[in-house]
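Q: Can I see a sequence and its folded structure?
A: Here is a first one.
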Amino acid sequence: MSHSQDFFDRPETLRWILRSLYAICAVLFGLDFVIHRHSVHPWEGLYGFYPVYGFIGCVVLVLVAKWMRKGLMRGEDYYQQVNQSAKEETHVGD
C-alpha cells in the first residue's frame, strides 16, 4: 500500500506556506507604521493594536471552546448506543 503525498502533505510546501505567512505578517506590521488610519477609538491608534486584538480574540475563543467541550463532548461510541437503543425500541414495538 503506497501513500502518495498530496500538495499540503509535503514538508517543503508547509515550510513555504509558513514562511509566506510570516513574511505577510511582517509586511502588514511594517505598514502599520506607514499608513495613516482613520481610527474611531483611541486604542486603534496604537501601533500593533490589531495584531494584539486578534491574538487575544483567538486565545479567548480557544479557552471558551475548551470550556464548552466539557459540556458538549460525547463518548466515541455515543451514536452506536443511540442506534442500539433505537433498534431495541423497534423490536419491542413489533
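Q: Show me another, different protein.
A: A second, unrelated one:
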Amino acid sequence: MLKRNVPLAVVFVTALLLIVAFFIPHRPFGDLESRFLNWYAIVSGFTFLLGLDSLTRHHLTRVIRRTEGWPYSLLLVLSLAGTMGLGFYSWIRFQSPFALRAPFMWLYTYMIIPLQATMFASLAFFIVSAAYRAFRVRNFAATLLLIAACLVMLGNVPLGSSIWRGIGELVHLVVPGVDVGKFAGLELFAAVKDWLMSIATAAAVRGIGIGLALGGIAMSLRIILGIERTYMS
C-alpha cells in the first residue's frame, strides 16, 4: 500500500507546490521552482548511475549465458570500460578529460565523432525511403503534399530560378511584348515557397503546437491525479 500511495502523494504535492509557485511568485513559494530544479539535477544524476548499472548487468548476463548476439554485448561492455578508463586517466593526468592532449579527447575526435557521422549518414537513406513513401501519389492529400514539396524545393535551389527564367523565355517567344528580365524577376517559385513556409506551414505548426499543449495538459492532469501510473511500473 505504501509503495503505491507514497509516490502518488509525492507527485501530487510536488505538482501542487509548483503550480502555486507559478501563480504566487512571492515568499515562501517564489524560490520553490529553483529548488525543485536543483533536486531534479541531483536525482537525474543518480538515475544516470542506475541506468549505467542496469545496462552493464544486462549485457554481462547476455555474455555469461552466451545468448544470441552476445559478441555485440561483449563489445559494448569493453567499449564502455575503455571509454570510462580513458576518461578517468585523462582526468587524473591532464586535469580534464577534454584536454587537447588527453587520450579521451583522441577517442572522442577519431572514434566517437566518425561513428556519429556514419550513423547520421545512414539515416539519409531512411529519410529518402520515408520521403518516397510519403510523396507517392495515392490520394488528393498526397498529391497536394507532393506538389508543395516540389515547389518548396524549386524555391530553395538555383535550379528553380533557371527553370523560371526558361519559362519566361518561352513566353517571350509566344508573346514578344513580355520582358524576360521583368518576368524572371518575379521569381514565382521563390514567392510560392515563401507563402507556403510563412502561411500554410505556420498554420499547420500552430495547430500541431496547440494539440501538443492540450495533450501535455491532459497527461499532466492524469499524472497529478494518479490516473496515469505507468511511471511506477
